[in-house]
Specification:
rod-shaped; single chain
């Protein structure tokens, strides 16, 4: 019964430890998910501003005001400027096969996309690890219940008047104890 009591305490401790790890990993997952969402939203806002700047430059070019068009183009942020220059190299005003605008994926990458994807990947890893830790915690908790069952049947076996019932109750307690010990030994610590 002493071993069952110690094993119950050990499994309870391990269950709590794995629950803490699962909670920490879920907090990390939530933080990374929020970061990815924020980066995506900020990138979308920047892309909207870039599209507006491009439209102003394009309108000035179409109006024949190259000075105003150059004013806008010179103020393009680097990612937009790179896409715009690549688009202009296709001679879009003369070439019908040119991309319709510089915001196609092969020319322009929405700001923050790479960082948002990295955060999402790390978040998924954290979530998977949190689930594993939660599963291990649950297994330790189940073992705690098994050891408590051992304590119940071991102590109850001495209270029965019939010898056969005492032996069966004690044998059941021993069998459950051995089963729980094997289950516990197979779990990570």
């Amino acid at each position: 019964m002493a071993l069952a009591t110690l094993s119950t305490a050990w499994c309870g401790y391990q269950s709590a430890a794995w629950t803490r790890q699962s909670n920490r990993l879920m907090n990390e997952f939530n933080t990374l998910e929020r970061r990815a969402a924020l980066l995506t939203m900020q990138g979308t806002q920047q892309a909207t501003i870039h599209a507006g700047m491009f439209m102003q430059a394009l309108a000035a070019h179409q109006a024949g005001n190259d000075k105003l068009a150059n004013f806008y183009v010179e103020r393009f942020p680097p990612e937009l400027r790179k896409a715009y220059d690549a688009w202009m190299a296709q001679k879009p005003f003369e070439n019908p096969n040119a991309d319709p605008h510089p915001f196609v994926p092969k020319l322009y990458v929405t700001p923050g996309t790479r960082e948002a994807n990295e955060a999402t990947t790390k978040a998924a890893d954290s979530q998977q690890e949190a689930r594993k830790a939660g599963n291990i915690s649950g297994q330790y908790l189940a073992n705690t219940v098994l050891f408590a069952t051992v304590l119940f049947f071991a102590s109850a076996s001495g209270k029965f008047e019939q010898r056969r019932v005492r032996v069966v109750a004690f044998a059941f307690a021993v069998a459950v104890f051995l089963f729980a010990v094997v289950r516990t030994a197979m779990l990570p610590r």
